[in-house]
Amino acid sequence: MADDPLDGRVALVTGASSGIGEATAMALARDGADVALAARREKRLREVAARIREEHGAQTLPVRTNVRDEDSVVEMVETTVAEFGRLDCLVNNAGLARGESVEEMSADQFRTMMETNVDGVFFATREAIPHLRERDGHLIFVGSFAGQYPRPFNPVYAASKWWVRGFAHSVEGNVGEEGVAVTVVNPSEVRTEFGAAYGESFEERFEEGEVTEPEEVAEAIAFAARQEGSTVSELDLYRRDKFSGF
Ligand SMILES: NC(=O)c1ccc[n+]([C@@H]2O[C@H](COP(=O)([O-])OP(=O)(O)OC[C@H]3O[C@@H](n4cnc5c(N)ncnc54)[C@H](OP(=O)(O)O)[C@@H]3O)[C@@H](O)[C@H]2O)c1
């Protein structure tokens, strides 16, 4: 519909096969954007894409991507731009947590997490910037509460999210004068498949209404993506009792 705020825009969402990424792709399409959906699980991407087309009539492009692999990320952005002819918004959302304490973490767990949460964000951002610059576009990062406050468990995950915030705001300083908006959205516990590496996922661990829902995070991202003149630099979303017991 011509009146939708993101009508004519193209968004690329990493980690769109579940959780926050899936809800974000849905929210951006509801607001009028066409969406490219990236992740490794292609079948899930196709299912999400079909639902988006059905519910919002948006054009969709599932792009099988491993964000740890530079060539795959280059191809993700190239395929999106080849299909839609432009890119207005990149949502750097793909991420994971593995392992617990520093002493218990294997080099393999460390590398998997850093390559996903850090390298993947760098590759995607680098490839997207030239396209976003042409469109006064949006670069949106999913950070975390863990990237703002010290935490007693999984310091490597936390540090990867501190990196995301530091990188995002430094890039903000870098591309702002070229018209690109940069946003970091920091959730705390969200009911998704996240956390499965700790034994049970957050959607299993928390009851509905207990913590943040992926759709709430998606709304924050969509709000940032709708801004035309200004930048929503950072948004934090927590359950209301997050600080009790601190
Ligand atoms: N849930 C929370 O409590 C919470 C809190 C703060 C921040 N976050 C952040 O929110 C983001 C989304 O997480 P979520 O909660 O929505 O969890 P989720 O449901 O587990 O989703 C993670 C997404 O990342 C994708 N992904 C993981 N590794 C990838 C890779 N190598 N290449 C491409 N895609 C990959 C997954 O897709 P495939 O497996 O199909 O590749 C999936 O779509 C993450 O950055 C996470 O750190 C989550």
What would you say this structure looks like, in words?
The chain has about 250 residues and is an alpha/beta fold. It has a single domain (about 10-235), classed as Rossmann fold (3-Layer(aba) Sandwich), CATH 3.40.50.720. It contains seven helices and seven strands; from the N terminus they run βαβαβαβαβαβααβ. It has helices spanning about 20-30, 40-55, 70-85, 105-135, 155-175, 200-205, 215-225; strands spanning about 10-15, 35-40, 60-65, 90, 140, 180-185, 235. Strands 3-2-1-4-5-6-7 form a seven-stranded parallel sheet, sandwiched between helices. Helix 1 (about 20-30) links the parallel strand 1 and strand 2. Helix 1 (about 20-30) packs parallel to helix 2, helix 1 (about 20-30) crosses helix 7 (about 215-225) and helix 3 (about 70-85) runs parallel beside helix 4 (about 105-135). The longest helix is centred in the middle third of the chain and has 28 residues, at about 105-135. About 45% of the residues are buried. The model has no long low-confidence stretch (mean pLDDT about 95). Bound molecules: NADP nicotinamide-adenine-dinucleotide phosphate. NADP nicotinamide-adenine-dinucleotide phosphate (NAP) binds next to helix 1.
